[in-house]
Amino acid sequence: MAIRKFLKHVVEALMALSLLGMVIAVFGNVVQRYLWGTGWVVSEELSRLLFVWLVCLAATLAFGEGQHLGFDLVTARLKGAPAAVLRWLSRGLMALALYFLISGAWQQVVVGMDSRSPVMNYPLALGAGGILLMGVCMAAILLLQAWHDLRGTTPPDSHTAPHNADTATKG
Question: Do 138 and 63 form a contact (C-beta atoms < 8 A)?
Fold first, then answer.
């Protein structure tokens, strides 16, 4: 699973670069306003765009690692068929939510191709593209988790399966 580790490091690096860009844009703007009474016009737009991508990348990474907030008080105590039914029901609901997220993000990307940001003049589809990428990646992760469940195999990192009883007893 070297590719999985590589992708994780790429996403973490992109998150770090987004955060660095936000810090430079906002802090630089504050310093310029304080010292010279002026600021960077692009600071607000750039920091907002980087924040959207940071959140989307972080949410995707957290989902892939099974670190999203979840309520497993009941499911962690179930075994056998009842646990499997609830696990598949949960996956179905997540798939439905992801369908709506992906289709809505795609519509925003299409509309945003012809719309430009007021200051930086980038296509607004760039912001919606982060949400689209997040939804597609989460859907792929959900499919991989379902595939491993159907085959009865353990995913490369056993904590990636949603509602895993082992994660409920840890920490």
Answer: yes
